[in-house]
Structures are given as structure tokens and as C-alpha cells.
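Lab notes, practical 5.
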Amino acid sequence: MVQVNKYGRRVVNEKMAYSDRARIHGVYDPNRREYPNLLLFMLYDDAVARSDSAHVMRHPIPMPGEDADYVITGDTWEDLAANVDGRLATLAGHVAGTRLDPSFVPNLVATVARFDELARSGVDLDFGRGEAPIGRAWHGPIREGSPNPTMAPFAEAGPYHCIILGAATLDTNGGPVIDAGARVLGVDGTPIPGLYGAGNCIASPAGEGYWGPGATIGLGITFGHLAGLGAAAEPVKPFDL
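Output from the prediction step:
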């Protein structure tokens, strides 16, 4: 499986954690004045499609025999590209008019050849796929004979399959910055008396990082506890109607 942009090129380590991988969709190309990765195209061969593994990381690839209208199929890379571009035409109003570039097929052929070479060697020299522990942990059954558990060469003949990918909102956070005691900081960086914050209504203490499933819950509980301790220790303030 690879993910390519509308030019038929890999642009990301496909096995990165979703919070990091999804950022590639928003990369702007100032030379072409466009977002070339607004949509990515997840391509896989029939060995993947026919696998009976129900591993949790299989999604969105359907199980064998399941009908999924978002899966596009072609007997060759050329057929698949034509079918994908046809689907994009029907979705034009929802995908900012994105279509495959005329260079898609020749670039894709080169991309797959390069990927196959890297898969056989076991080292992804382009994007480091399979090097990070999380990429290996969040992975299904290893293809027999693959030196890199996250990579395997494509079948030499089709059918081939595609699922169109776009960025989505899974979780959000942002807002006031807090200190280590969960006190909300003013624009000058000093705590605002009596004001505390925790959870997804504040700027995440994790910054740009994501430590795994439940990270936002853990941070909410931790800083909510600190906020409660801090608020309870505040001196009683007069209250006037």
C-alpha cells in the first residue's frame, strides 16, 4: 500500500500516527499556488484486498466480500487512474475541483517501482516507513518474507484498488495558555487571578505532540485536578450583586 498525491508521488510516511500523517494534506506549494496533497490516493493490490485479517488497523479497507462504494478498482494502473479521475469528476463540488494530473500514471509507475525496491531491501530511504515503534505497533499481520513489517512489494499484475483520502477533524483543542498549575495566562504571560483552564478549551500542554490514544483525556484529568487544587486554595473573594 502506498499513498500518493494527484501527481502520483509519495509525499509521506504512510504508517505515521494519524495526527502527524494528516498534516501533509495542508502543505501549500507556493510555486504551483496550490495544495497538491489536499487529497491523497491510497493504492493497494489484491493481496491486501483479499487478506482475511480483521486487524483493527485494517480500516478503511473492507473485508473480502464486503461491498464498499468508496473503493475504486482497475485492472491496470492506467485503468485505475481513469476510474479514480472519473470519481473525482463526480465529486468536484466537494473536493475543490481536484483532478489527477496528466503526469499521474507515469509518475505512479515510477513511484511503485521505487517502493517495491525499498520494500525488498527493507529500508524506506525516502520516508523512513517502519522505523518508528508506533508504525510497527499499529500494523496488521506481517507479509511473509518482508524484511520490513510495514512494507511489501506490489503484485506485478492487477487488479489494483484505491481509496481517496482527505483530512478530517478527530479532536480539537485550542484557546488560552495555562501554566504548570493550570492557571490561565494573560497576554503578558502572567496568571489571571482566579481563572483556571483544562481540557480541550485551552491550548494543549502537549503543544504539537500527540502521545497516543487518550492523551487529551489524560491531560484534561491532570490539569483539571491541578485547577481544582489551585481554585480551592484561592482566598475567598467578596461577591457583590
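Observations recorded by the TA: Strands lie at 2-4, 39-45, 71-74, 160-166, 183-185, 191-196. The radius of gyration is 23 Å.
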